[in-house]
Amino acid sequence: MKHNKKTKEGIAERIAFLREAFPEIDKHLASRPPRVGADDLLDAGAAAWTALRLHNGKALPVCTAERDEKGLAVSIWY
Q: In this structure, is residue 61 part of a structural domain?
């Protein structure tokens, strides 16, 4: 993304990106609870977008997985 997620431009940029996976994103933004910021809802949308990509076998890791204290592989995906 080119713009900070808390700016008007950053919010618009993220909405445009998420709209393909979540066509009703504008409705969800408009009806979000008062204490939920637009950037928080968009962060949740990005996490859901990644989960969909993982589910569909399309997600890619950002880096080589590291192991946590239990030996589980930990990585960042998109």
A: yes
Domain that holds residue 58: 8-74
The single-letter code of the amino acid at 36 is V
Residue at 3 is within a domain: no
Which amino acid is it at 14? Answer: R
Q: Does residue 1 fall inside a structural domain? A: no
Per-residue pLDDT tens digits of the chain, which is 78 residues long: 999 988 999 999 999 999 999 999 999 999 999 999 999 999 999 999 999 999 999 999 999 999 999 999 999 999
Q: What is the pTM of this model?
A: 0.80
22, 48 Cβ separation under 8 angstroms: yes
Number of residues that make up the chain: 78
